[in-house]
Amino acid sequence: MEATEAAHGEHHTSLGVDNRMLLMWIFLASECLFFGSLISTYLIYKGESLVRPLPDDVFDIPLTSLSTFVLLVSSFTMVLAVYAAHHNFPKMMKLSLLSTILLGLVFLGFQVYEFRLFGSEGLNLSTNQFGASFFVLTGFHGVHVGVGVLYLGSMLIGSMRRNGLGPSGGLYMEIAGLYWHFVDIVWIVIFTVIYLIP
After folding, report:
1. What is the pLDDT of residues 154-182, one digit of tens each?
2. Where are the domains of the chain?
3. 8 A C-beta contact, residue 152 and residue 71
4. Which pLDDT tens digit goes with each residue over 69-78?
5. How far apart (Å, rounded) are the C-alpha atoms in residues 156 and 33?
6. Which CATH number applies to 2-196?
7. How far apart are CA 125 and CA 127, in angstroms?
């Protein structure tokens, strides 16, 4: 059994889960705590700002809804990439991975546009409590999307080697997919809490 696992490059824990997958789950659990604290901070200071502009002055819900849709579509393309990696469809995997990366970049473009728009209307980190908590929360999420784009980019480059991602390619893609889906789920929570709840 151990010889077979070693031959396939598997690293199972006593839980029966590959240790690389388990490490990603542990990392994502710590990220839940991190984003939970940022969202809690935003909610604590919500409505405390005395200086304008306030959310109603700057939010463009249709624009942010469009960027949210783009990120949700990227989750679908990531699912296709994971499926293709597990079923040995390298062209489909590369195309789906490239689509996910491009959609992630489009989302980041929306975020940069929104930040610049808010800045032009006088909202920045030091304007008021809303500005500080908003930019820190959404900015850190944007950083996570950027890291995800780089991560997926490295997977795409790795897949173009002669032997692709190797015998554990499906696992590597699944781990990358976990991270990407986490980033998407966090954005849904942020979008709901900040933009949709009055």
Report:
1. 999 988 877 767 667 789 999 999 999 99
2. 2-196
3. no
4. 999 999 999 9
5. 30
6. 1.20.120.80
7. 6
